[in-house]
Write a structure and sequence with these properties.
Elements lengths: L1 H24 L5 E9 L2 E9 L4 E2 L5 E8 L3 E4 L6 E5 L4 E3 L3 E5 L5 E6 L10 E9 L2 E9 L5 E7 L4 E7 L10 H25 L1
Antiparallel strand pairs: 1-2, 1-13, 2-4, 3-7, 4-5, 6-9, 7-8, 8-13, 9-10, 10-11, 11-12
Helix pairs in contact: 1-2
């Protein structure tokens, strides 16, 4: 009887430790943002995944990206020859709710697939957010011909551009939850065996 109680206590302790560890390890290490902003009269949509949701981000903080230009032309970081350039230490800022392009100095963010960052090659795509001396230039290119812009806009009065908002976070299921359930089942089994032995001994 005493041995059974000790074993049950050990099982409870181990299960509690495993569950607590799994809850800590289940915290997100990537953050997903839904892109949705205007260039001229058109809209750019997509998804950006980062490794941080606070402070200024660099190119290495962007884990993946994908965009739709003009609601039909799609390109992404998994496409042919993808390039991401973030110029300026404060060009892209992240919060728990949004990603913002900061318009100051010579800040620039450039997403490109299928071509060189500085030129629009046939079959390539370019999405550019640029801070210039005259304001902010937002451009999107679907390059059926070099230099052919499918989207273009110039917004000289902007001080910042919110390019994405945080996607709803899914609640993760702890990896040790099945173990916890097994532990509860084992406790029930121990209790049943103890009652059965007591009944046989009576």
């Amino acid at each position: 009887m005493k041995g059974t109680v000790v074993m049950v206590n050990h099982l409870l302790s181990v299960t509690t430790i495993i569950l607590a560890f799994s809850l800590v390890s289940a915290r997100a290490d990537t953050y997903t943002y839904d892109a949705d902003f205007a260039i001229g009269t058109d809209t750019v949509t997509g998804v950006i995944t980062t490794d941080s949701d606070s402070g200024y981000l660099t190119s290495s903080d962007i884990k993946s990206w994908s965009f739709q230009l003009d609601s039909s032309n799609g390109f992404s970081s998994t496409g042919s020859n993808p390039v991401l350039v973030i110029s300026g230490a404060d060009a892209l800022s992240a919060t728990s709710t949004s990603l913002v392009f900061e318009v100051s100095g010579s800040n620039e963010i450039l997403f490109c697939e299928g071509g060189e960052p500085g030129s629009c090659q046939v079959g390539g795509y370019i999405l550019k957010l640029e801070s210039t001396g005259s304001g902010t230039v937002l451009e999107g290119y679907c390059c059926s011909h070099p230099g052919d812009a499918s989207l273009a806009g110039d917004s000289p009065t902007l001080s910042s551009v919110q390019i994405a908002t945080a996607a709803p976070a899914a609640t993760p299921v702890p990896a040790a939850l099945p173990l916890f359930a097994s532990g509860l089942g084992a406790l029930g089994l121990f209790g049943w065996r103890r009652k059965r032995k007591a009944a046989l001994a009576a």
